[in-house]
C-alpha cells in the first residue's frame, strides 16, 4: 500500500510538518481529497441501487459519507484560519 509514510514522507509528523500545516498546499491537498472522496462515496455508494436497497449497507455507506464530510469541515475550519495567519 502506498501512502505518504511509505513514499518517503516518514518525517511528515516531524521534519516535513511545515509542508502540511494549515494554510499550506499540503493541507489544502488533504482538504480537497476529503471532499473528492466524500462526493465519490455519495455518488457511487450511497446512491447505488444495491446499497440503497440494503438498510445495513446504506447505513454504513452513509456513515462513511458523513465521516468524510465531517473531515472536510474540520480540516477546512482550521486550514483557512491557518492561511490567513501568514
What does this structure look like?
This protein has 86 residues and is mainly α. It has one domain. 66% of the residues lie in helices and 0% in strands. It contains three helices and no strands. The protein has helices spanning 25-46, 49-52, 55-85. Helix 1 runs antiparallel to helix 3. The longest helix is centred in the C-terminal third of the chain and has 31 residues, at 55-85. The chain is elongated. The mean pLDDT is 86.
Q: How far is it from the N-terminal to the C-terminal residue, by CA?
A: 35 Å
Structural class comes to: mainly alpha
Order of helices and strands: HHH
Uncertain spans, ≥5 residues at pLDDT below 50?
A: none
> If you average the pLDDT, what whole number results?
86
Main sheet overview: none
Task: Based on Cα principal axes, name the global outline.
Answer: elongated
Task: State the total count of DSSP E strands.
Answer: 0
Query: What's the number of domains?
Result: 1
List the helices and strands and how they pair.
Layout lengths: L24 H22 L2 H4 L2 H31 L1
Which features would summarize this protein structure in a list?
mainly alpha; 0% strand; 3 helices; 86 residues
Tell me briefly what this model is.
The protein has about 90 residues and is mainly alpha-helical. It has helices at about 25-45, 50, 55-85.
